Amino acid sequence: MSQTVLVTGGTGLVGSRLKQLLLERGYQVRFLSRNPEKVSQIESFVWDVNQQSVDEKALSGVDYIIHLAGAGVADKKWTKQRKKEILESRTLSTRLLRTALAKTDHTVKAFISASAIGYYGWDTGGVWKKEESRFGDDFLATVTKAWEAEIDEVGKLGVRIAMLRIGVVLSEKGGALKEITKPVRLGVGAPLGSGNQYMSWIHVDDLCNMFIHAMEDQNIKGIYNAVAPNPVTNKELSRLSAQILGKPFFLPNVPGFVLKLVLGEMASMVLGGSRVSSEKIQSNGFQFSFPEVKPALNDLLLK
């Protein structure tokens, strides 16, 4: 009998691809959604994070939960209200799942949750960051710390938990790569800020397979960095994208103050960078299909 995986945030960039890979492997997949009627082909149940309510039938017969839900960090300008949404969409959704699990006679073996390398702070230079490195003191670090604290609470129910601190996800369907290649495709690609800031990236397929690996391997517990083994600088990623797309790449860097004018506080995400290690997940048996950025970009940009 096939096993059932309950996914939150299933219609997003990562969730959509994860759903495909889980179905290909023979899993039953169901979603939690604010609007189940809008989800096609997947059994979906309603939840409302703000009201802290969830259809308890959603948990019936579930073997694993993969928790991806959270308001997009780069989707809108960081107003006070948006910052609240970014935080609470992560902490309150996790709390709601914990409460639902505590109330029901569930069969969940493991709770695998997204987290973020934002935990380390937005500009950590060239120093390698490992899972035990200390957390940063900026907005996203604060969000991630609070989020992980809520995930730890789920672990107190006796469920195996694993958290994947996700880096910059590269996908042909959207996200960071789409934004990076927009100016490149127009022939006006240029490094952002100094261009020397590290980007700890991961191919979307490697990320989804890492979630499945963490779900299936009972030895995977606690925190793991979900990044490819070879981070690159912003300049290098932009240059390679231009090369693969056959576009010029010769313009001067986009100054930091311009990005701050356009993006506000959110510019820190682009101007800062971190060099994050994938050693721990690799030593736990995970093998990357795309450890190097050039083959990853070839795969995604030439589709």
CATH fold name of the domain at 4-169 and 200-227 and 277-289, please?
A: Rossmann fold
CATH superfamily of the domain at 4-169 and 200-227 and 277-289: NAD(P)-binding Rossmann-like Domain
Class from secondary-structure proportions: alpha/beta
Summarize the biggest pleated sheet. Answer: 8 strands, mixed
Description:
With about 300 residues, this protein is an alpha/beta fold. The protein has a domain at about 5-170 and about 200-225 and about 275-290: NAD(P)-binding Rossmann-like Domain (Rossmann fold). The chain has helices at about 15-25, 80-105, 140-155, 175-185, 205-215, 235-245, 255-265, 265-270, 280-285, 295-300; strands spanning about 5-10, 30-35, 45-50, 55, 65, 110-115, 130, 160-165, 170, 175, 200, 200-205, 220-225, 230-235, 275. The strands form four sheets. The chain has an eight-stranded mixed beta sheet with strand order 4-3-2-1-5-6-8-13, sandwiched between helices. A three-stranded mixed beta sheet has the order 10-9-12. A two-stranded parallel ribbon has the order 7-15. Helix 6 packs across helix 10 (about 295-300).
Question: How are the elements arranged and paired?
Answer:
Elements: E1 4-8, H1 13-24, E2 28-33, E3 43-48, E4 53-54, E5 64-67, H2 80-103, E6 110-116, E7 128-129, H3 139-155, E8 160-166, E9 168-171, E10 174-175, H4 176-185, E11 198-199, E12 201-203, H5 204-216, E13 222-226, E14 232-233, H6 234-245, H7 256-263, H8 267-271, E15 275-276, H9 279-283, H10 293-301
Parallel strand pairs: 1-2, 1-5, 2-3, 5-6, 6-8, 7-15, 8-13, 9-12
Antiparallel strand pairs: 3-4, 9-10, 11-14
